[in-house]
Amino acid sequence: MKSTLEILQAAKAAKASLSLLTTEKKNAALAAMASALIEATDDILAANAQDVEASREKLGEVMVDRLTLTPARIEGMAQGMCALIDLPDPVGRVIDSHVRADGLRIEKIGVPMGVVAIIYESRPNVTSDAAALSLKSGNVCVLRGGKEAYRSAHAIVTAMKTGLRSVGLDENLIQLIEDTTRESATALMEAVGYVDLLIPRGGAGLIRTCVERAKVPVIQTGTGICHVYVDASADADMALTVLENAKTSRPSVCNACEVCLVHKDIAAGFLPLLDERLATMRAESGKPTVTFRCDEASLSLIPHGTAAGEDDFDTEFLDYILAVRVVRSVDEAIAHIAAHSTGHSEAILSRDEGAIARFVGAVDSAAVYVNASTRFTDGGEFGLGCEMGISTQKLHARGPMGLCELTTYKYVIRGEGHVR
Amino acid sequence: MKSTLEILQAAKAAKASLSLLTTEKKNAALAAMASALIEATDDILAANAQDVEASREKLGEVMVDRLTLTPARIEGMAQGMCALIDLPDPVGRVIDSHVRADGLRIEKIGVPMGVVAIIYESRPNVTSDAAALSLKSGNVCVLRGGKEAYRSAHAIVTAMKTGLRSVGLDENLIQLIEDTTRESATALMEAVGYVDLLIPRGGAGLIRTCVERAKVPVIQTGTGICHVYVDASADADMALTVLENAKTSRPSVCNACEVCLVHKDIAAGFLPLLDERLATMRAESGKPTVTFRCDEASLSLIPHGTAAGEDDFDTEFLDYILAVRVVRSVDEAIAHIAAHSTGHSEAILSRDEGAIARFVGAVDSAAVYVNASTRFTDGGEFGLGCEMGISTQKLHARGPMGLCELTTYKYVIRGEGHVR
């Protein structure tokens, strides 16, 4: 087994070659990696079957589903890689440029971060998404997946390395950490001088540990306690449609709505309709029904509601559960969000331009929606191709992280002997 | 004395009001703060005299000079504030915008970080620069200056608060930490939920401590081991002029050159000229002379040189000292810089477009110069007004930090009931 330090040394040595590659060469590599992935379908499925078999008793059904690969899913991973080919190369882009009166030319140019490390869990598509995004953005990637998905990740990385070699590139541009114990995660967090950016993708515990312990730069991703505020002026039909979508279209993801705030002037009319739409009607059509965790004011208005517990407004349910609170004003909604949100995505449903402007100005989250579902916060939906995660911090990148968010910049200054 | 926690609570409470202010209001506040500073000149000078008196025996001459204020320096601080009035407001700027085929409009908008904390040492102008930059970029600032400059900082902040009140703004937008012990610095590093960005400005020890200990987002600033590489094709006269400027125009600052790398093909002709220019000629005209710390190959070519010690290529001299090494190629220069640089500023002096392209592409520092002095790496020189420091990290901001670098962004998405 290669040690984590050996792998980091190889990654660091590889980064100079990658940052100088042309766009054409990187795009050729992405196409070759995608082809190699398809060609290795049998090997990848066999490795994945071993992972699934070994994990079946330890993991719940949802986790086993996340881990399991099919030919269609592998095809989807290859398509995700190919989608990056058409996106502009963030390396070398001129972000800003000016010539001073004395003739000194100052340009601000996009450049790779260097070595990007990703600590993630069981979803095999993260392996290929992360490697492809890193390659196109000029970075070497160091992948540290979960133990339960190691065989799958290894088979996927083997295929991608075959792709790299087929176009004459260094296979060290993609590195898979072989040690899947806690030690290798800690080593990555402390790899000052080797890791230029660490991105944890996974549960709240992993992310908290990384943010607290890391000595290398980290971007916090993922946790989403997303709010939808239904203003007094909201169109009730639109509000029902948006809330049903935000809550039920995929409750297990971070951009699903967890909390509904309703203005007091519309609560008595609206909340019974919400109960009917998300509970009664869905039950009648055989869909999973939503249960409600209600504050005092909303409890009597929602037949299927139960009283909210102390933590219900601070919980990412990731389930068919919606916390509901009645507020007296848009400012009270804003204050509730400031106190309870994780800074991911929030929405206002309203026809009042004043309330909309106030909400959009004051809510300090990565994505603020007006009359739309929070479910759009996603790299693909935002036009970034696949994504490296959704940043919930403010430093460097916010919201879905695509190619540009994996780069930094440098100033290039050209003179003719200029001195100060 | 107000506790650090009380001050942080007041800062957090103030940030909502600041992020919603108009550009006009913020500019009026800057003008009022500058006037108030001038009007308080006598009070500030009196407070500063007490600081200087108390420190004279503890601090060296350079530090006392940094600490000492004069009417002209206070005037300069006021001018620095006024210079920000004409710069574009980074808050509300549309960074990116597109409308999807389904009509959903996605905009990426500049917004403040929130509360910006600065830990700094004795230079009183940092107090006014940091407060002014924070205000214009929509942030509340929390200032934690050094103990030896506390009376000066307090007098400056008192004047700025008078300016804020005179235009009807909350004086809590500018906060000065009253506790100047190590405890308050630690409290800021750990103020999760209160501090959105921490910027340490000062010695290497302070910066290292912040980077290692901080639980809040930090930007690393300042240390500059800057290199000038003299290529085989360099114009020798230009190289002498640029090196004299980069080394001697202000040796105590972070953008001064510390290391000169010279191509072997030009070394025998060039290095004796460098010695003549930086030592002999300067001595003859009564200027401070440069001493050289030489590698083996350069030692015999530089009459005033001494053999370099083990650390001389890893030291920020901040003095009239230049380390010199002969390299065999531009690639050896690049490799030396990769191994020894702090990522601040590096220059190539060359007439060979191939060597220039290689150097500019491969050197991974905040500023890369072609035929110009490293001394230009500065917020004022780059057109950013005054600066909050020079970032030597890659995450978020790189190089001089002005108004935009004190902001983040959010996505604002507008629909008409759009669901996914």
What does this 3D model show about the protein?
The structure is a homodimer of 420-residue chains. In chain A, α2 (23-39) packs antiparallel against α5 (71-83) and α10 packs across α11. Chain A has helices at 4-19, 23-39, 41-55, 61-67, 71-83, 124-136, 150-166, 182-189, 204-213, 236-248, 264-284, 296-299, 330-340, 353-362, and strands at 94-99, 105-112, 115-119, 140-144, 174-176, 197-200, 226-230, 257-263, 291-294, 305-307, 321-327, 345-349, 367-372, 390-391, 399-400, 407-418. With 420 residues, the first copy, chain A, is an alpha/beta fold. Chain A has 14 helices and 16 strands. The longest helix of chain A has 21 residues, at 264-284. Chain A has a 7-stranded parallel sheet, with helices on both faces. The model of chain A has no long low-confidence stretch (mean pLDDT 95). In chain A, 54% of the residues are buried. Chains A and B meet through α10, α14, β13 and β16 of A and α10, α14, β13 and β16 of B. β16 (407-418) of chain A pairs parallel with β13 of chain B.
Question: How do the helices and strands line up, and which of them pair or pack?
Answer:
Two copies of one chain form a homodimer.
Chain A: H1 4-19, H2 23-39, H3 41-55, H4 61-67, H5 71-83, E1 94-99, E2 105-112, E3 115-119, H6 124-136, E4 140-144, H7 150-166, E5 174-176, H8 182-189, E6 197-200, H9 204-213, E7 226-230, H10 236-248, E8 257-263, H11 264-284, E9 291-294, H12 296-299, E10 305-307, E11 321-327, H13 330-340, E12 345-349, H14 353-362, E13 367-372, E14 390-391, E15 399-400, E16 407-418
Parallel strand pairs in A: 3-4, 3-6, 4-5, 7-8, 7-12, 8-11, 9-10, 9-11, 12-13
Antiparallel strand pairs in A: 1-2, 2-16, 14-15
Helix pairs in contact in A: 2-5, 2-7, 3-7, 5-6, 6-7, 10-11
